[in-house]
Automatic annotation (TrEMBL):
Gene Ontology CC annotation, any one: nucleus
Biased composition (Basic residues): 362-384, 393-403
Annotated InterPro entries: RRP1
Protein name per the record: Uncharacterized protein
Composition skew (Acidic residues), residue ranges: 343-357
Ranges of Basic and acidic residues composition bias in the record: 321-342
Keywords from the named record: Nucleus, rRNA processing
Record-level GO BP terms: rRNA processing
Source organism superkingdom: Eukaryota
Amino acid sequence: MDADLSAAEIVFAQKLASGEPTTRQRALRRLQSWIKESSSDGKTFSKDDCLKLWKGLYYCMWMQDKMLIQEELADNMALLINHLGSDDQVFLFTETFFITMGREWHGIDRWRLDKFLMLLRRLVRSLFAWLKERRWSSELVEELFEVCNRTVLSTDRSIPDGVKFHFSSVYLDELDLAGAESLNRDQVITMLEPFVNILADRKTSNYFFDSVIEEVFVSILHQFSDELGGGEDDEDETAEPTGAPAAGIEFNYAKIADMLFQIGKAKQMRSDRRKRLYAIVKKFKMAASGLDPMSMELDEKDICSDIDEEEIDNATRRLLRREGQVKTDREQFRKQKRKQQEDDSDDNDQDGGSDGDEPARKAKAPPKVTRKSKSKPSNKKRPRLSNEQSPTKQRKQRKTKPS
């Protein structure tokens, strides 16, 4: 790695992570021109160089506020791949982006999560536009899948399932936006193969397995069901259903069903996942036959086919008769309970008046006697009485008097 090149990338990373918006904007513009000049001179970026650049770009997005400016910044970051000199540099730049997102994913708070999800979406959009300019070359598509198999479509725990889930959720939308008119059915099948392979891998987590099923294959079925109904959710409610899918990505539903069936019948496939795959295969076969795979309608012949109208009428009469009997039983039970309460009250009255004319009354509890606390003896001495005032002296004098 060139020493000057490495030093320049460190400076760019510091400027991109600056707290001043003006400094970040100037650094991003200079980075675009610097990448273009370096690529034209034949200089190449190593993996460490790209990781340093994405570290600075990550914090540049981290510091950016205001939604419209965030969208513009995400577009400018994603378009950096157009300034790289070779295809290998494009895939290296993409791989280091996924690695950076995996490293920093758990440190993103809920207030900044949306703009990083938008950044991932814009990079996928830019990649598909780049492939479309090269007419979806099979070699380039294969190299892109190798990058994905090492990062966002792998069982590697270093890339969180949240990053993988969001990649799966935006994949079909951005593919439809970029290649709806330029992709044929065989190319579409090729673009779906990495998701089929991740379903076949036994090490895939349950969360990621369910995410691929729902966000990729069930989404295809929902899209076919909506298009088959003629767009019932559109604003023009008077439009008649066409009975055929609208313009968009053309899927080979029979081929998709066969791919999923092949991985479902494998010996290493778990039984619960095999059951889930077979259910999806059945729906894709319905789509291949032109039927609505998401329809919940049932054939009337399969419902109550062995029951005639007379049996239904008899069952209805029995149900009504049983309902009337239940109401009668409830009324009788209420009357018996009311009569028993009246008898109990009469018996209580007779028991209370047997000892006298007045009914027996409950003895009131005697009031509680509160004892006064003894006062402490006073320290003052009582005055001494004289002999004339002493009651003992007076009693003796009365006894000695003659009668």
